[in-house]
Each structure stands twice: as structure tokens, then as C-alpha cells.
Design brief:
7-stranded antiparallel sheet, 7 strands, alpha+beta
Length: 154
């Protein structure tokens, strides 16, 4: 009997390079069998913020707590994928796509650097597959991302 595919973690707030100076927002969702790139659409974030504010209101919280619930959405939006099935994630938006381990030729995770003024550049993730190259940037922990990517397909 084949093991059911499960979400094992996320790399939130990544940017995928889609042109010379164009980037699109994604959450990378690691499963036991593949990597799913979930496109972050503003309408999804707004809907999630609305749901969180309504939940706070239904729990009897005032306007300030409702505001905080709504405001925190951008920071925790990616966590919703931990509760979803891989198929539901894929079907969420037409721009979502999958990268299977057998397609991957190379993965490079690089930490950003900090300049003399204390400004930090984002980390980068480059995935070369048999059909194309994906270049992502992200601000979450690079070592954690690297460890998560190593677990896919194992």
C-alpha cells in the first residue's frame, strides 16, 4: 500500500523571478513526494484576513483585536498550507505548479549578505530541472529551507 502524501513544511513569502525585473509571490510547500509552488494572489490574502477578523469578532474580541488578527495575515498566511491536502493546494490557483524530485538536476540555497549599513539582501534558491531553471528569493532561514528541501521524496 502506497503511503499517503503529506505536507511536511513551507517556505513562506518567496519571490519567483518570471522576467528581467518581474517577480511573483509564492509559498513553497514541501510534501513527502514533491515541491508545490503556491502562487500568492492578493485576493486570497484579503479573504484570509477577512476570515481572521470575523473569527476574532465571533470570539467576542473588540475592533483592536480584530485589526491585529487581520494585520498578522501576511506573516502567517503560508501556515494555512500545513492544514491543506497537496491536491487542494495545487487546485487553489491556476499558477500553482509542482516540481518532482526526479526532475531536479541541481538545487542551490544561498544566504543573503549584509552590507556595512546593516541592510540584508534576501536568500536565494535556484532549482534546475530537466526542463527549466527556477530562481526564488526569500527571507526565512536558509538552513531551515535547505533541510526541508532535502526531505522531499524521502
Amino acid at each position: 500500500m502506497e503511503e499517503q502524501e503529506k505536507v511536511i513544511g513551507v517556505i513562506p513569502n518567496t519571490k519567483l523571478k518570471v522576467g528581467f525585473i518581474r517577480w511573483e509571490s509564492y509559498t513553497l510547500v514541501a510534501t513527502t513526494k514533491r515541491l508545490i509552488a503556491a502562487n500568492i494572489r492578493s485576493n486570497l490574502v484579503k479573504e484570509e484576513a477577512r476570515k481572521r477578523a470575523e473569527k476574532a469578532k465571533s470570539e467576542g474580541h473588540g475592533r483592536f483585536k480584530q485589526y491585529l488578527a487581520r494585520a498578522g495575515t501576511n506573516f502567517t498566511f503560508a501556515n494555512r498550507y500545513l492544514e491543506m491536502t497537496p491536491e487542494a493546494i495545487l487546485k487553489e490557483t491556476p499558477k500553482n505548479f509542482t516540481i518532482y524530485p526526479e526532475e531536479v538536476k541541481a538545487i542551490r540555497v544561498s544566504e543573503g549578505y549584509q552590507d556595512e549599513d546593516g541592510n540584508k539582501s534576501p536568500n536565494s534558491l535556484v532549482i534546475r530541472t530537466t526542463s527549466r531553471k527556477y530562481a526564488f528569493s526569500f527571507n526565512s532561514n536558509a538552513r531551515t529551507a535547505k533541510n526541508l528541501l532535502a526531505k522531499i521524496g524521502h
